[in-house]
Amino acid sequence: MPPDEPGSARSGRAAAGRRPRVLVLRALGLGDLLTVVPCLRALRRHVPGCELVLAAPGRLAAVAGATGLVDRLLPTAAPGRDVPAELDWAGPPPELAVDLHGNGPPSHLLLQRLRPHRLLAYRHPGTPDLPGPEWREDEHERERWCRLLRWYGIAADPADLSIAAPACASPAPGAVVVHPGADAGARRWPPERFAAVVRALRRAGHEVVVTAGAGEEALARRVAADAGLPGRAVIGGSRDVPFPQLCALVAGARCVLVGDTGLAHLATALGTASVVLFGPVAPRLWGPPPHARHRVLWCPGPGEDPLRPGDAHASLPDARLLRITVEEVVEAVLGHGR
Q: Which string of DSSP letters, residue by residue, matches 140-168?
């Protein structure tokens, strides 16, 4: 290993008897964290024996632990998808810091203030002292961050994204899991359509449960009530479903029906069949890997931007999402066998 790389016995940066520390910045959401599992795994291999610290919102501590790759979560706070103003880092500078958050000066400068021995990031004219590859707007999120590591000589495979299912039992084994929520209206298919799909699935003999994250209880209960489901069929809502329970539910599901949100990435990570509905952003950027167990529905129009034809953070359902019909979704879900 070259002498300037973390983990080298010749680097002299880690005190005797102390594990080298690798700090990864990914202060975003559930799906964002799961898309960089290949990178976390690659860093583990590259710096064996390191303490891998993930800077991310505190609510993701259980998710980080479930990957089996993170030693410690450094809680962050920032509105929306903004870069945190500071990191509560204690002790000597990290041997290696990795910016998996963004491509601009705010995240670069945040990590530079910690004075890491080495910082891996995308190139940007606002931080000309940092080398790195060029950012590409047309790149899938998994490939984007693996390419960053490969540029620095760290082997990373975007397909290496699975996590282990938990040991606890599913609360609804074999059910179809329907998740109507998303953090922006642009990515929420109408609740009455979700309800129509649920009714069709029940007529076909399938058990269905509806999941809800914190603040999504009213939406989930509306879908369940309109579909004729009992109240107990709604899981979560007043708060997030505890992650081990959510993992067990998804791992044991027949299929997950979801929009472009974190639960879709959890189904991918656990190898569960999924039907994912896309609207303002192309599945080419955020979709599941090409595999028969994952079906993507997306209806872009002629002449539209092929990557981001809509505003992913708008309050109303995106036009491309509204072009997806109930019949298409029912057919896609029923086409998945166990």
A: -HHHHHHHHHHHTT----TT----PPPSS
Apex CA 31: angle with CA 25 and CA 37, to 5°? 60
Residue 132: how many other CB atoms lie within 10 Å: 18
Query: How would you list the strands of the sheet with 72-76, edge to edge?
Result: 72-76, 51-57, 21-25, 96-99, 118-120
Q: How many CB atoms lie within 10 A of CB 10?
A: 10
- pLDDT score, position 238: 85
Q: Is there a shared CATH topology between the 21-151 domain and the 176-334 domain?
A: yes
- Of 236, 239, 238, the closest CA to residue 250 belongs to 236
Amino acid identity of 164?
A
170: tokens are: 């599913």
Q: How many CB atoms lie within 10 A of CB 235?
A: 19
By residue count, the chain amounts to 338
Query: Contact, 140 vs 158, CB < 8 A?
Result: yes
Q: How confident is the model at residue 10 (pLDDT cuts 50, 70, 90)?
A: very low
176-334, CATH topology level: Rossmann fold (3.40.50)
Angle at 24 between CA 62 and CA 211, to 5 degrees: 30
pLDDT at 14: 55
Q: How far apart are CA 84 and CA 86, in angstroms?
A: 5
Element (DSSP H or E) covering residue 221: helix 217-227
Architecture of domain 21-151: 3-Layer(aba) Sandwich (3.40)
Structure tokens at 298: 């997306």
Contact 26, 99 (CB under 8 A): no
Q: Do β-strands 118-120 and 176-179 pair in parallel, antiparallel, or remain unpaired?
A: unpaired
Report field, pTM of the whole predicted structure over 0.85: yes
- Of the listed ranges 14-18, 81-85, 302-306, 318-322, the least confidently predicted one is 14-18
The domain segmentation of the chain, as residue ranges, is 21-151, 176-334
For 55-96, how does the pLDDT look when each residue is reduced to its tens digit (9 = 90+)?
A: 999 999 999 999 999 999 999 999 988 999 999 999 999 999
